[in-house]
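Example complex used in Figure S2.
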Amino acid sequence: MTTENILTVEETLRNIVKKITRKEDVVLTPTTTFKELGADSLDVVQILVALEEAFDIELVDEDLKSLNNMGAFIGYVKKKVAEKKK
Amino acid sequence: MSLKGKIALVTGGSRGIGRAITLKLASEGADVIINYFRRTSAAEATAQEARSKGVNAHIIKANVGEPEKIDEMFREIEQKFGRLDIFINNAASGVPKPALELDAKGWQWTMDINARAFLLCSQRAARLMPKGGRIVCISSLGSRMITPIYTSVGVSKAALEALTRYLAVELAPKGICVNAVAPGAVESEALKLYAEDMSLPRLSQSTPAGKLVQPEDIANLVAFLCSDECSMIIGQAIIIDGGLSLAPMS
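Predicted assembly (336 residues):
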């Protein structure tokens, strides 16, 4: 089990976004968008890959297209993590 | 043409053109190592399909844009297989923007995955080919012809073709043939991204062959370049485009 596994999805995501965007002040609210976090399309790809590795899950690009904010995105990631645990 | 008993690594080998190459090499008898970046389920599905052809298939997750991941991948290959006979450099990425909008990060991302990975992987692959082998990289017609928003990929593919020639001359004395395949418009997910303003039927009609190149067409050519029959083709970038480059769209 990695350190990320015992962190919540929100904490893990915040750490990953900090590392990739190199920003210290990362505030995640349900309505925050990746753009507001300062993440461009390449950053988003790297964030997805880091989350997949942290939780050993697979995020499907087609599913992600309809997720417009952090609330929806985190909900989707949590669903994938829960499916993995089953 | 038989590749029976050969061991082949295909980067980006789980989907699209890479998948077609993986399955063609498997159908010719090669054991296949499928490198992939994100979709484990797609890699596993392709590996299973390869195994159904009676060969061994192994998947390795690695972002070839990161040198340390390349090192890890080749360490695993060396430990598990001990050698390599065929290396197909297919993994590619890019930032679809015109030249004047392309930033340094997008440029570097594309060059790292498309061009630098070919150099680093070829260095490692060649060390695992003491009795000779085949290296084929997948280039693109975009290395020499202009397509809007294809800047970063087109330039990286030009680098691939130049590197193909340098590697080919260095490795030919060791019995390793290095060549490139440069497809035109291939019916794939990538084409939908880069040619979104062009309708696929129009592209097909503009191709002298009357249809788009299919991933399997690329795979057939790659398999030939990997065979014993083509030991005297060295350092070439072979265009496969149904004649599109001879009669470009007006």
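The interface with chain B takes residues 40-42, 48-49, 52, 58 of chain A (CB under 8 Å). Helices of chain A lie at 9-21, 41-55, 61-64, 70-85.
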